[in-house]
Amino acid sequence: MTRRRTTKTKVTTALGALVTAAALALSVPACAYAAQGVLIVNGRGHQNPGGCFAVPRFPSSVTNHTDAIAEVHTGPRCTGQVEELVYPGVTYLTETARSVFIL
User: Fold this and answer.
1) Tens of pLDDT, residue by residue, the chain (103 residues)
2) What contacts 31, CB < 8 A, 6 or more positions away?
3) Nearest to 79 by CA among 102, 99, 55, 49
4) 100, 32, 27, 26: which is closest to 69 by C-alpha?
5) SS3 of 95, please?
6) Residue 78 gets which letter from DSSP?
7) List of E strands, 1-103
8) Phi/psi class of residue 75: alpha, beta or left (left: φ > 0; alpha: ψ in -120 to 50)?
9) Which of 28, 41, 84, 96 has the most CB atoms in a 10 Å sphere around its CB?
10) Is there a contact between 47 and 34 (Cβ–Cβ < 8 Å)?
11) Phi then psi dihedrals of residue 18, to 5 deg
């Protein structure tokens, strides 16, 4: 009878942990964030942007009409150095940027 209780206790403990983890996952807000507004890269608007955007040609412009800061990177896929921080309401002109990340 002791063996049966041990197995039952393990199953109950595992189910309790699973239910607790599920409850925590559902109660914590999502980490993904999208800025509110429009990010304009070379005249192309991105509504409520989030993540990395390519800068396909030179010279380029980045206009930030969002509620977040945009990082202009020297490398593709938001790699390399941060060339400039573009704050909301600002337009930045560049001849070297390859990508933009919206924070």
Assistant:
1) 555 556 565 555 444 444 444 444 443 343 456 899 999 999 999 999 999 999 988 899 999 999 999 999 999 999 999 999 999 999 999 999 999 999 7
2) none
3) 99
4) 100
5) coil
6) G
7) 37-41, 44-47, 51-54, 60-66, 70-73, 82-86, 91-94, 99-102
8) beta
9) 41
10) no
11) -65, -45
Amino acid 1: pLDDT? 53
Residue type, 15: L
pTM: 0.67
| Residue of 95, 71, 75 whose CA lies nearest to 85 | 71
List the alpha helices (DSSP H) in the chain: 2-27
Cα gap 70→60, rounded to integer Å: 14
Beta bridge partners of 66: 37
3-state secondary structure at position 45: strand
The tokens for 1 are 């009878």
Assign 48 to helix, strand or coil. coil
Place of tokens 């560049």: 94
**Which single residue is written with the structure tokens 């040609």?**
57
